[in-house]
Amino acid sequence: MLIYAVKDYEELSRKAANIISAQIILKPASVLGLATGSTPVGTYRHLVEGYQKGDLDFSKVTSVNLDEYRGLSGDHDQSYRYFMNTNLFNHVNIRKDHTFVPNGLTEDGAEECADYDARIEALGGIDLQLLGIGGNGHIGFNEPSSVFTRGTHLVTLTQETRQANARFFASIDEVPTQAYTMGVGNIMAAKKVLLLASGENKAQALYDTVLGPVDPMVPASILQLHSDVIIVADEAALSLLNDKI
Ligand code: GLP
Fold first, then answer.
1. Which atom of ligand 1 is the closest one to the Cα of 202?
2. Contact (Cβ atoms closer than 8 angstroms) between residue 136 and residue 204
3. Is the pTM of this model over 0.90?
4. Theoretical Cys-Cys bridge with 98: which of 62, 140, 142, 205, CB 3.0 to 4.6 Å?
5. What is the pLDDT of residues 111-157, one digit of tens each?
6. Which of 165, 167, 169, 223 to mutate to test the pocket of ligand 1 (most atoms within 8 A of CB)?
7. Backbone phi, psi, residue 154, to 5°
8. Which helix or strand (DSSP H or E) is residue 126 part of?
């Protein structure tokens, strides 16, 4: 694991955008695995700036997102499709038909999951997978569990995760109870993984991810077994790890 320790959220966002930019410059037809949540918002802002300056070209990029709430349409302002459109896709020259997010409204969940895995496979796999991390160590919506999951699947969200995401909704009752997510296997199959962690509320999860045992109760801990992981974390997120790395 390559760990970049940065000062704060702004530095984290710049560093992450630089790494993603390097990926796109080195391989214009990259398949990017993208993430939502508060953490990557600044990264996407910097990528948009890079595009506006003429330094970045997304015309050959394809994206596959990690997850989507079940029951929300892409027009819902809390859906992850909407998040991606408004934070990145609407502002760069990526082809919309080259952007993929699980369909939260699909009738047949099993078919949606199988199709999503087949799509990733047909694209030749993910070149760079961007990840945030949940306070309980979840990645995508892979919640702590007794097993590591393989492919895209439907999950029931923990109360903790729904509570953490309730800040985006009018009330916790409106937070969907289920979501589609790539599996840990999909994430581990990505050629490169870029995990971002900002803030003190991520310090324990980051500590467990980097130094804890590989344990499905901390889904991100499996990244210890991936051969090309970059972590960008700020001082607060690294507060428990500082003298240990
Ligand atoms: C959600 C997303 C994750 C994200 C996590 C942390 O549950 N499904 O992909 O990493 O929240 O979000 P935040 O970056 O807002 O702390």
1. 16
2. no
3. yes
4. 62
5. 999 999 999 999 999 999 999 999 999 999 999 999 999 999 999 99
6. 165
7. -95, 130
8. none
Residues in Cβ contact with 190 at an 8 Å cutoff, skipping those fewer than 6 apart:
33, 125, 126, 127, 128, 129
DSSP per-residue string spanning 151-212: S-EEEEPPHHHHHHHGGGSSSGGGS-SEEEE--HHHHHTSSEEEEEE-SGGGHHHHHHHHHS
Label residue 34 exposed, middle or buried (CB < 10 Å: 0-12, 13-18, 19+).
buried
Q: Is 34 helix (H, G, I), strand (E, B) or coil?
A: strand
Nearest to 207 by CA among 244, 161, 164: 244
Name residue 130's amino acid. L
Overall residue count recorded for the chain in this entry: 245
Q: For residue 233, report the phi and psi dihedrals to the nearest 5 degrees.
A: -140, 145
Q: How many other C-beta atoms are found inside a 10 Å radius of the C-beta of residue 185?
A: 16
Domains of the chain, CATH where assigned: 2-234 (3.40.50.1360)
User: In the chain, which ranges are continuous DSSP H helix?
Assistant: 9-26, 41-52, 80-87, 109-122, 159-165, 184-188, 203-211
Ligand 1 near 36 CB (within 6 A): yes
Paired tokens of 44: 């996407």
